[in-house]
Specification:
The chain has 462 residues and is α/β, with parallel strands linked by helices. It is built from 12 helices and 18 strands. Ligand BES binds next to strand 13.
Length: 462
């Protein structure tokens, strides 16, 4: 029987070509102009699950984009792994910053990916990482080694908040029963420093609108005498952090989980070079909440960031105008025990309270989600750890991640199961950015590692 390494060597080109086909379809969930491409991608994913050996697959319609479901149940008495991933991608803009078109995948070598990386939107987040599971399952199936039941749930709305998946999960608890949920949609510390993500941040996302005068005005005739909503918004936003970079919203930190010094010391042991971090981003210094390290600021601490701000004249040349309106999109990353609805409410109250009488403000909430922490003494964590040890020759380091996958906390609530975040990307793979890429080595390493997870999880669950 072929072992996984030999199977990969034999099928490597096909694994790459299949992924490349998937990456060619612009499944941009945020933009309704791509709705047909989203459906086409769902159909391709379903087909791939069928071919890999699922004995039942289905495209589940929702009020938004469809969910692809597949399963292979070999014995109801064996444990069941539910694989979750997403086939939708972020919009690729700004397009002019891509070195090759986002939906025409190309393979290029980089310093961190000497074996080559696939450059395309979604290559790492999450088509490439999701597809590793399809291929790992194919191997287990082709070689008759599947030691447990497998269910796949691959959605098309992760990048827009997974609202419809939340409904689907609540309505299909029976169908989705499992012993653990397995996701590859996070990153490794480095290709030679394996890690397992044990935490995700929550999210509260709001859009604010500040209105001054009822129409755009001449900035000479009225300027100085009427509130400029862009000026006011800038000042309001600036006031949301104090001189220590603490967030000033009353009550914001009330429920924040404080880590013990021992836990913080443990975190600090994971390899990290601030010099390299700054060099990679071409910044002379970093910035963040006083009293916390860069790693802590980007994982165990909550944040508030403007994601976009606009208003007034932004065309070519100079137009003298005092705008009527200003807008901003603001995200708050949350940590365990903070509740996203509560934080949205605290933000709204505070933002309204600091608005001067010369403007009106509106706050509209977007999607949110809660933080999540995986226990590192869970059988599935130990199985994942052993799988990494087998294929990397090193024990993976548990690491809290800074990003959010809001559905994970909902999985725990609705399905009562824990999630293992077994990601193989790198933070430098430019997810959500121009020139997103995914290392071929990482892709194949994922395909190699996942079968061991199945094997060890089944063994250790007995
Ligand atoms: N895969 C990411 C989340 C992620 C990335 C977690 C890196 C840990 C490390 C996911 O696709 C994502 O982008 N999530 C969004 C939230 C969503 C509600 C739009 C995020 O974190 O901004
Ligand atoms: Mn993702
Ligand atoms: Mn994403």
């Amino acid at each position: 029987m072929l072992n996984i390494q030999d199977y990969i060597t034999e099928n490597k080109d096909r694994f790459l070509n299949e992924l490349i086909e998937l990456l060619k379809i612009p499944s941009i969930s945020a933009d309704s102009a791509y709705a047909n491409d989203v459906v086409k991608t769902a159909e391709m994913v379903e087909e791939s699950l069928k071919k890999a050996g699922c004995d039942r697959t289905e495209i589940c319609e929702t009020a938004g984009h469809p969910i692809v479901y597949g399963e292979k149940i070999i014995d109801a008495s064996l444990p069941t792994v539910l694989v979750y991933g997403h086939y939708d991608v972020q919009p690729p803009d700004p397009l002019d910053l891509w070195n090759s078109p986002p939906f025409e995948p190309v393979i290029k070598k980089t310093k961190l990916h000497p074996d080559g990386a696939i450059f395309a939107r979604g290559s790492c987040d999450d088509k490439g990482q999701m597809y590793m599971h399809v291929k790992a399952f194919e191997y287990m199936n082709e070689t008759n080694q599947l030691p447990c039941n497998v269910k796949f749930m691959i959605e098309g709305e992760e990048e827009v908040g997974s609202d419809n998946l939340g409904i689907f999960v609540a309505e299909n608890r029976e169908k989705l029963t499992n012993d653990v949920i397995l996701i590859s949609d996070t990153s490794l510390i480095a290709s030679d420093v394996p890690s397992i993500t044990t935490g995700l941040r929550g999210l509260s996302y709001v859009e604010v609108e500040v209105t001054g005068p009822n129409k755009d005005l001449h900035s000479g005739v009225y300027g100085g005498a009427v509130a400029n909503p862009v000026n006011v918004l800038a000042k309001m936003i600036a006031s949301l952090h104090d001189e220590n970079n603490h967030i000033t919203i009353p009550g914001f930190y009330d429920k924040v989980e404080e880590l013990s010094q021992a836990e913080r010391d443990k975190m600090a042991e994971a390899p990290f070079s601030l010099e390299k971090y700054k060099r990679d981003l071409q910044v002379d210094d970093v910035s963040g909440e006083n009293g916390y390290s860069t790693k802590e600021r980007a994982s165990i601490r909550p944040t508030l960031d403007v994601n976009g701000i606009w208003g007034g004249y932004i065309g070519e040349g100079a137009k003298t105008v005092l705008p009527s309106k200003a807008y901003a999109k603001i995200s708050m990353r949350l940590v365990p025990n903070q509740n996203s609805d509560e934080i949205t409410e605290l933000f709204t109250k505070h933002f309204e309270s600091i608005a001067p009488a010369s403007v009106k403000v509106k706050v509209a909430p977007h999607h949110g989600g809660e933080a999540y922490v995986t226990p590192i003494d869970h059988t599935a964590y130990l199985a994942a750890e052993k799988a990494f040890e087998k294929t990397f020759g090193k024990t993976p380091i548990p690491k809290r991640g800074g990003g959010s996958i809001p559905i994970v906390e909902l999985f725990e609530k609705e399905l009562k199961s824990k999630t293992i975040l077994m990601g193989f990307g790198l933070d430098s793979d430019d997810i959500h950015s121009p020139n997103e890429h995914y290392g071929i080595w990482n892709y194949l390493k994922g395909i190699e590692t996942i079968p061991y997870f199945y094997q060890y999880f089944a063994e250790m669950s007995r």
